[in-house]
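Researcher: Structure prediction, please.
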Amino acid sequence: MTTAPADFLYAETPEPHRDRTKGLLRDHPGVRELIGRNPASFLLIAGVVALQTAIAALLGGGPWWLALAVAYAVGAFANHSLFVLVHECAHNLVFRSRTGNLLAGMLADCPNVVPSSVSFRAYHLKHHSFQGDYDLDADLPSRWEARLVGHTLPGKALWLLLFPVFQALRPPRLKEIRFANAWTFLNWVVVFAYDAAMVLLFGPLALLYLALSFFFSIGLHPLGARWIQEHYLTAPPQETYSYYGPLNILALNVGYHNEHHDLPSVPWNRLPRLRAAAPEMYDTLAWHRSWSKLLWRFLADPGISLFSRMVRRNRAGVAVVAEV
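Model: Predicted structure follows.
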Protein backbone atom coordinates (compact mmCIF):
# COMPACT_ATOMS: atom_id res chain seq x y z
CA MET A 1 0.00 0.00 0.00
CA THR A 2 1.40 3.39 -1.00
CA THR A 3 1.81 5.91 1.79
CA ALA A 4 -0.02 9.19 1.32
CA PRO A 5 2.35 12.15 0.88
CA ALA A 6 2.74 14.46 3.87
CA ASP A 7 3.61 17.47 1.71
CA PHE A 8 3.57 18.54 -1.91
CA LEU A 9 6.19 17.29 -4.36
CA TYR A 10 8.56 20.17 -5.11
CA ALA A 11 9.97 20.87 -8.58
CA GLU A 12 13.09 22.89 -9.26
CA THR A 13 12.17 23.30 -12.93
CA PRO A 14 9.84 25.92 -14.44
CA GLU A 15 6.26 24.95 -15.27
CA PRO A 16 6.41 22.60 -18.27
CA HIS A 17 4.04 24.18 -20.75
CA ARG A 18 6.06 27.20 -21.79
CA ASP A 19 8.75 24.97 -23.33
CA ARG A 20 6.13 22.59 -24.71
CA THR A 21 4.43 25.51 -26.47
CA LYS A 22 7.71 26.58 -28.08
CA GLY A 23 8.36 23.05 -29.30
CA LEU A 24 4.81 22.65 -30.57
CA LEU A 25 4.93 25.85 -32.63
CA ARG A 26 8.40 25.05 -33.91
CA ASP A 27 7.67 21.49 -35.02
CA HIS A 28 4.05 22.03 -36.06
CA PRO A 29 3.68 25.63 -37.26
CA GLY A 30 0.33 24.76 -38.84
CA VAL A 31 -1.33 24.62 -35.41
CA ARG A 32 -1.29 28.42 -35.40
CA GLU A 33 -4.35 28.16 -37.66
CA LEU A 34 -6.27 26.67 -34.73
CA ILE A 35 -5.77 29.81 -32.65
CA GLY A 36 -8.77 32.11 -32.58
CA ARG A 37 -12.25 32.57 -31.18
CA ASN A 38 -15.50 30.69 -31.42
CA PRO A 39 -18.44 33.14 -31.27
CA ALA A 40 -20.83 30.19 -31.58
CA SER A 41 -19.97 29.45 -27.96
CA PHE A 42 -22.28 32.33 -27.03
CA LEU A 43 -25.19 30.48 -28.63
CA LEU A 44 -24.34 27.51 -26.41
CA ILE A 45 -24.27 29.78 -23.37
CA ALA A 46 -27.68 31.22 -24.19
CA GLY A 47 -29.13 27.80 -24.97
CA VAL A 48 -27.90 26.06 -21.82
CA VAL A 49 -28.91 28.98 -19.59
CA ALA A 50 -32.40 28.85 -21.15
CA LEU A 51 -32.51 25.06 -20.68
CA GLN A 52 -31.52 25.19 -17.01
CA THR A 53 -33.94 28.04 -16.35
CA ALA A 54 -36.78 26.06 -17.97
CA ILE A 55 -35.99 22.86 -16.06
CA ALA A 56 -35.76 24.78 -12.78
CA ALA A 57 -39.12 26.42 -13.50
CA LEU A 58 -40.74 23.04 -14.19
CA LEU A 59 -39.31 21.54 -11.01
CA GLY A 60 -40.27 24.52 -8.86
CA GLY A 61 -43.63 23.01 -7.98
CA GLY A 62 -42.50 19.41 -7.60
CA PRO A 63 -41.03 17.31 -4.78
CA TRP A 64 -37.49 17.96 -3.54
CA TRP A 65 -36.33 14.43 -4.38
CA LEU A 66 -37.17 14.97 -8.05
CA ALA A 67 -35.08 18.14 -8.09
CA LEU A 68 -32.23 16.14 -6.52
CA ALA A 69 -32.46 13.31 -9.07
CA VAL A 70 -32.72 15.59 -12.11
CA ALA A 71 -29.86 17.75 -10.82
CA TYR A 72 -27.57 14.71 -10.59
CA ALA A 73 -28.59 13.15 -13.92
CA VAL A 74 -29.09 16.25 -16.08
CA GLY A 75 -28.37 19.52 -14.32
CA ALA A 76 -24.80 18.59 -13.37
CA PHE A 77 -23.88 18.16 -17.03
CA ALA A 78 -25.59 21.40 -18.02
CA ASN A 79 -23.95 23.45 -15.29
CA HIS A 80 -20.59 21.84 -15.97
CA SER A 81 -20.80 22.88 -19.62
CA LEU A 82 -21.56 26.43 -18.47
CA PHE A 83 -18.48 26.35 -16.26
CA VAL A 84 -16.43 25.27 -19.28
CA LEU A 85 -17.91 28.18 -21.24
CA VAL A 86 -17.03 30.56 -18.39
CA HIS A 87 -13.52 29.20 -18.81
CA GLU A 88 -13.65 30.01 -22.54
CA CYS A 89 -14.72 33.56 -21.71
CA ALA A 90 -11.85 33.85 -19.22
CA HIS A 91 -9.42 33.20 -22.08
CA ASN A 92 -11.26 35.65 -24.41
CA LEU A 93 -12.13 32.79 -26.77
CA VAL A 94 -15.74 33.78 -27.45
CA PHE A 95 -15.64 37.44 -28.55
CA ARG A 96 -12.84 39.72 -29.67
CA SER A 97 -13.52 42.33 -26.98
CA ARG A 98 -12.64 41.81 -23.34
CA THR A 99 -15.95 43.40 -22.32
CA GLY A 100 -17.94 41.01 -24.50
CA ASN A 101 -16.24 38.02 -22.91
CA LEU A 102 -16.79 39.36 -19.39
CA LEU A 103 -20.52 39.87 -20.05
CA ALA A 104 -20.88 36.47 -21.72
CA GLY A 105 -19.19 34.88 -18.72
CA MET A 106 -21.69 36.55 -16.39
CA LEU A 107 -24.59 35.17 -18.41
CA ALA A 108 -23.09 31.67 -18.26
CA ASP A 109 -22.65 32.17 -14.52
CA CYS A 110 -26.34 32.74 -13.76
CA PRO A 111 -27.51 29.12 -13.27
CA ASN A 112 -24.46 28.46 -11.10
CA VAL A 113 -26.25 30.35 -8.27
CA VAL A 114 -22.96 31.69 -6.84
CA PRO A 115 -21.23 34.48 -8.82
CA SER A 116 -17.72 33.43 -9.79
CA SER A 117 -16.98 34.11 -13.46
CA VAL A 118 -15.05 37.36 -13.00
CA SER A 119 -13.09 36.07 -10.00
CA PHE A 120 -12.38 32.81 -11.80
CA ARG A 121 -10.94 34.77 -14.72
CA ALA A 122 -8.44 36.59 -12.52
CA TYR A 123 -7.27 33.53 -10.62
CA HIS A 124 -7.33 31.11 -13.55
CA LEU A 125 -5.08 33.20 -15.79
CA LYS A 126 -2.51 33.27 -12.99
CA HIS A 127 -2.79 29.47 -12.79
CA HIS A 128 -1.59 29.35 -16.40
CA SER A 129 1.26 31.78 -15.81
CA PHE A 130 2.39 30.39 -12.45
CA GLN A 131 1.37 26.72 -12.42
CA GLY A 132 2.40 25.17 -9.12
CA ASP A 133 3.33 28.44 -7.38
CA TYR A 134 1.70 28.12 -3.96
CA ASP A 135 1.27 31.89 -3.59
CA LEU A 136 -0.29 32.43 -7.02
CA ASP A 137 -1.98 29.23 -8.19
CA ALA A 138 -5.56 29.01 -6.88
CA ASP A 139 -5.87 25.53 -8.35
CA LEU A 140 -3.54 24.24 -5.64
CA PRO A 141 -5.24 23.25 -2.38
CA SER A 142 -4.10 25.08 0.71
CA ARG A 143 -1.86 23.18 3.11
CA TRP A 144 -4.45 23.39 5.91
CA GLU A 145 -7.02 22.06 3.44
CA ALA A 146 -4.87 19.06 2.54
CA ARG A 147 -4.13 18.27 6.20
CA LEU A 148 -7.81 18.59 7.15
CA VAL A 149 -9.05 16.32 4.37
CA GLY A 150 -6.35 13.70 4.84
CA HIS A 151 -6.15 10.54 2.76
CA THR A 152 -9.26 8.60 3.83
CA LEU A 153 -12.26 7.91 1.61
CA PRO A 154 -14.76 9.83 3.83
CA GLY A 155 -12.47 12.85 4.02
CA LYS A 156 -11.87 13.02 0.29
CA ALA A 157 -15.56 12.41 -0.47
CA LEU A 158 -16.56 15.28 1.82
CA TRP A 159 -13.94 17.49 0.16
CA LEU A 160 -15.40 16.80 -3.28
CA LEU A 161 -18.95 17.28 -2.02
CA LEU A 162 -17.99 20.70 -0.65
CA PHE A 163 -15.45 21.52 -3.35
CA PRO A 164 -16.91 24.98 -4.15
CA VAL A 165 -16.65 25.91 -0.47
CA PHE A 166 -12.99 24.90 -0.25
CA GLN A 167 -12.23 26.80 -3.47
CA ALA A 168 -13.86 29.92 -2.04
CA LEU A 169 -11.53 29.74 0.99
CA ARG A 170 -8.33 29.83 -1.09
CA PRO A 171 -8.15 33.51 -2.25
CA PRO A 172 -6.92 34.91 1.11
CA ARG A 173 -3.77 32.81 0.58
CA LEU A 174 -3.15 34.47 -2.79
CA LYS A 175 -2.38 37.94 -1.52
CA GLU A 176 -0.73 39.18 -4.72
CA ILE A 177 -3.92 38.80 -6.76
CA ARG A 178 -6.55 41.49 -6.45
CA PHE A 179 -9.71 39.97 -4.99
CA ALA A 180 -12.36 42.22 -6.53
CA ASN A 181 -13.04 45.19 -8.77
CA ALA A 182 -16.08 46.84 -10.40
CA TRP A 183 -16.61 43.87 -12.73
CA THR A 184 -16.69 41.52 -9.74
CA PHE A 185 -19.45 43.52 -8.08
CA LEU A 186 -21.44 43.65 -11.33
CA ASN A 187 -21.08 39.85 -11.53
CA TRP A 188 -22.56 39.58 -8.03
CA VAL A 189 -25.49 41.85 -8.93
CA VAL A 190 -26.30 39.91 -12.10
CA VAL A 191 -26.20 36.44 -10.55
CA PHE A 192 -27.95 37.32 -7.31
CA ALA A 193 -30.67 39.12 -9.30
CA TYR A 194 -31.13 35.95 -11.35
CA ASP A 195 -31.32 33.90 -8.13
CA ALA A 196 -33.95 36.23 -6.67
CA ALA A 197 -35.99 36.13 -9.87
CA MET A 198 -35.98 32.31 -9.86
CA VAL A 199 -37.32 32.21 -6.29
CA LEU A 200 -39.94 34.91 -6.87
CA LEU A 201 -41.18 33.46 -10.15
CA PHE A 202 -40.87 29.71 -9.60
CA GLY A 203 -40.31 29.10 -5.90
CA PRO A 204 -37.39 27.99 -3.72
CA LEU A 205 -37.25 24.49 -5.22
CA ALA A 206 -36.25 26.00 -8.55
CA LEU A 207 -33.21 27.58 -6.90
CA LEU A 208 -32.53 24.36 -4.99
CA TYR A 209 -32.37 22.47 -8.29
CA LEU A 210 -29.84 24.95 -9.67
CA ALA A 211 -27.76 24.86 -6.48
CA LEU A 212 -27.68 21.06 -6.53
CA SER A 213 -26.74 21.10 -10.23
CA PHE A 214 -23.88 23.45 -9.43
CA PHE A 215 -22.52 21.36 -6.55
CA PHE A 216 -22.77 18.10 -8.50
CA SER A 217 -21.19 19.65 -11.60
CA ILE A 218 -17.87 20.22 -9.86
CA GLY A 219 -18.19 17.97 -6.82
CA LEU A 220 -19.05 14.42 -5.78
CA HIS A 221 -19.99 13.23 -9.26
CA PRO A 222 -18.03 11.63 -12.13
CA LEU A 223 -17.67 15.17 -13.50
CA GLY A 224 -15.88 16.14 -10.29
CA ALA A 225 -13.03 13.80 -11.22
CA ARG A 226 -12.03 16.45 -13.74
CA TRP A 227 -10.30 18.35 -10.92
CA ILE A 228 -8.28 15.26 -10.06
CA GLN A 229 -7.53 14.51 -13.70
CA GLU A 230 -6.01 17.87 -14.54
CA HIS A 231 -3.04 18.14 -12.17
CA TYR A 232 -3.06 15.44 -9.49
CA LEU A 233 0.03 13.24 -9.66
CA THR A 234 -1.41 9.92 -10.76
CA ALA A 235 1.71 9.21 -12.86
CA PRO A 236 4.46 11.41 -11.36
CA PRO A 237 6.46 13.40 -12.18
CA GLN A 238 4.06 14.34 -15.02
CA GLU A 239 1.99 17.19 -13.59
CA THR A 240 -0.71 17.83 -16.23
CA TYR A 241 -3.03 15.13 -17.60
CA SER A 242 -5.70 14.91 -20.27
CA TYR A 243 -8.90 12.87 -20.37
CA TYR A 244 -9.97 11.37 -23.69
CA GLY A 245 -13.23 9.66 -22.73
CA PRO A 246 -16.77 10.02 -24.10
CA LEU A 247 -17.89 12.62 -21.57
CA ASN A 248 -15.82 15.16 -23.49
CA ILE A 249 -18.83 15.43 -25.79
CA LEU A 250 -21.00 16.88 -23.01
CA ALA A 251 -18.03 18.59 -21.32
CA LEU A 252 -16.99 20.52 -24.45
CA ASN A 253 -13.55 18.87 -24.68
CA VAL A 254 -12.44 20.21 -21.32
CA GLY A 255 -10.60 16.92 -20.85
CA TYR A 256 -7.96 18.03 -23.38
CA HIS A 257 -6.02 19.68 -20.60
CA ASN A 258 -2.42 19.27 -21.74
CA GLU A 259 -3.49 20.63 -25.12
CA HIS A 260 -5.19 23.59 -23.46
CA HIS A 261 -2.17 24.45 -21.32
CA ASP A 262 0.16 24.12 -24.30
CA LEU A 263 -1.92 26.48 -26.44
CA PRO A 264 -4.55 28.32 -24.32
CA SER A 265 -5.64 30.45 -27.28
CA VAL A 266 -7.25 27.47 -29.05
CA PRO A 267 -11.04 27.28 -28.41
CA TRP A 268 -12.70 24.14 -27.06
CA ASN A 269 -14.00 22.85 -30.42
CA ARG A 270 -10.49 22.74 -31.97
CA LEU A 271 -8.59 21.00 -29.16
CA PRO A 272 -8.99 17.48 -30.65
CA ARG A 273 -7.42 18.80 -33.87
CA LEU A 274 -4.48 20.12 -31.86
CA ARG A 275 -3.87 16.68 -30.38
CA ALA A 276 -4.19 15.05 -33.81
CA ALA A 277 -1.68 17.52 -35.29
CA ALA A 278 1.06 16.57 -32.80
CA PRO A 279 0.54 12.92 -31.76
CA GLU A 280 4.16 12.48 -30.68
CA MET A 281 3.63 15.19 -28.04
CA TYR A 282 0.41 13.82 -26.57
CA ASP A 283 0.21 10.08 -27.17
CA THR A 284 3.43 9.59 -25.19
CA LEU A 285 1.95 11.19 -22.06
CA ALA A 286 -0.09 9.45 -19.38
CA TRP A 287 -3.79 10.21 -19.78
CA HIS A 288 -7.14 9.12 -18.35
CA ARG A 289 -9.84 7.05 -20.06
CA SER A 290 -12.61 7.29 -17.46
CA TRP A 291 -13.61 9.99 -14.99
CA SER A 292 -15.69 7.44 -13.04
CA LYS A 293 -12.70 5.12 -12.56
CA LEU A 294 -10.48 8.05 -11.63
CA LEU A 295 -13.05 9.27 -9.11
CA TRP A 296 -13.05 5.88 -7.39
CA ARG A 297 -9.27 5.65 -7.51
CA PHE A 298 -8.93 9.05 -5.86
CA LEU A 299 -11.44 8.20 -3.14
CA ALA A 300 -10.23 4.67 -2.39
CA ASP A 301 -6.46 4.94 -2.82
CA PRO A 302 -4.86 6.17 0.43
CA GLY A 303 -1.70 6.91 -1.53
CA ILE A 304 -3.44 9.85 -3.25
CA SER A 305 -4.27 12.94 -1.25
CA LEU A 306 -4.56 16.68 -1.80
CA PHE A 307 -0.78 16.79 -1.36
CA SER A 308 -0.42 14.79 -4.61
CA ARG A 309 0.46 17.96 -6.50
CA MET A 310 3.62 19.50 -7.93
CA VAL A 311 4.69 22.79 -6.35
CA ARG A 312 7.53 25.13 -7.29
CA ARG A 313 9.12 27.82 -5.13
CA ASN A 314 10.84 29.85 -7.82
CA ARG A 315 8.92 32.08 -10.22
CA ALA A 316 12.17 33.22 -11.88
CA GLY A 317 11.67 36.83 -10.87
CA VAL A 318 8.45 37.23 -12.86
CA ALA A 319 6.20 39.94 -11.43
CA VAL A 320 2.44 39.58 -11.11
CA VAL A 321 0.27 41.88 -13.19
CA ALA A 322 -3.18 42.21 -11.67
CA GLU A 323 -5.91 42.24 -14.30
CA VAL A 324 -9.42 40.94 -14.87
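Model: Residues 319-324 have pLDDT under 50 and may be disordered.
Researcher: Thanks, that helps.
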